[in-house]
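Data availability (excerpt). All sequences and predicted token strings are deposited with the supplementary files. A representative entry, Putative RNA-binding Zn ribbon-like protein, is shown inline so that the format can be inspected without opening the archive.
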Amino acid sequence: MNLASYADLAVDLVNTRRDQEDDLRDLEGLRALLSQRPHLGGRIAHRELDAMRALREQLRAIIVAAARGDEDDAVERLNTLLIHHPVHPQLARHNGQGWHLHFNESGSIPDRYAARTAMGLAAEIAAEGVGRFGLCGAEGCGRVFLDTTANRSRRYCCGRCAGRAGVTAACSPIAPRVTVPARESGQ
Ligand SMILES: [Zn+2]
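Structure token line:
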């Protein structure tokens, strides 16, 4: 179990959609996302795709609220997600590792993904507040990120966006879904 990586899982899913692009427009896109996470393998059909897209919107709303500094909204949305996707921890031991916790080994891919990401975001907010969530400040991007810099100075999702800040181009030719500059108020 690595809760920090589960917060990253949420960011990865949210960033599969930008205004003009959607990596989860078909099953192939979902397979590509999950190929990075072999422990989340399982049956994939249109039902799972639809559920993952719905989960993505819930996670985006949480992260965008957090990035805006709206703690109450982020937490309320996240608590709702936690109720709908309860965690079922199990102790496991394999590959020479000691006993460690696994979450939700059974259930559909969307259910397991939801439980993990909800726990990851909850652990992040419990430990750090909402201050590390960010929305890329580059025009035409719209991706979210988790700022792990020591002084929380990150404003862009990637080096390419940072390098082109002030220029119209960004990481990809997409329009922003939300245009609130990250960290504008320095909160
Ligand atoms: Zn960006």
